[in-house]
Amino acid sequence: MRILAIDTSTEWCSVAVGDGRAWCESDEHVVHAHSERVLPMVDAALAATGWTLDGLDGLAFGAGPGSFTGIRIGCGVVQGLAFATGLPVVAVASLAAIAHEAWRTRAWSRVVAGIDARMREVYLAAYRRDDGLWREAVAPAVVPPSRAAEICVVDGGAWRGAGNGFAAYPELAGRLGLDEADADLRPRARAIGELALPRLAAGEGVAAESALPLYVRHRVALTAAEREAGARL
Q1: Is the pLDDT of residue 232 over 60?
Q2: pTM of the model
């Protein structure tokens, strides 16, 4: 099956086209320019493979949590492509994509994924890979680093941290009792595509209007006092 996957949930814009055996990937550090770069990157990836949108079997996107604006852009782009083509869509949690990237590049099978949520909080989830399948050990949540151990309780074994939340809050790995952490790992489109393909094959893709972001934090604005104090969403 052929799939196009995108992620715009961080300062990176990531696009991948593949079928599970081979992938054409593109990643750019765009900061706030996702809306300008994502479609040209999609066009370039399709041109490189010689595929067309109509020749795909589905679409996938990083649904969050992450940058509120970035997630909305990614969701909107995929919805637009799905409306135009009738292709099914698979929404993949960004934290799950980080865990898969940690397994793909570091062979880690027990991963606590963390993304800087701003406002002195972190998005966290934990995933365990058994028999080739990922299992959600701790559902995505947002929490101050000081309370991370209260919601992120994992079983025994060697657990590692992955994601920029461990750079934003260096004490986080120690609070969670992790063996090590790689703060450079992030949700990449290839990881999203690889997670989405079996779900697409199982018929779990949804219509464009049902492809929705995953919002763990529901606040999308700051008070004047928070802005003056330097807080960021």
Answers
A1: no
A2: 0.91
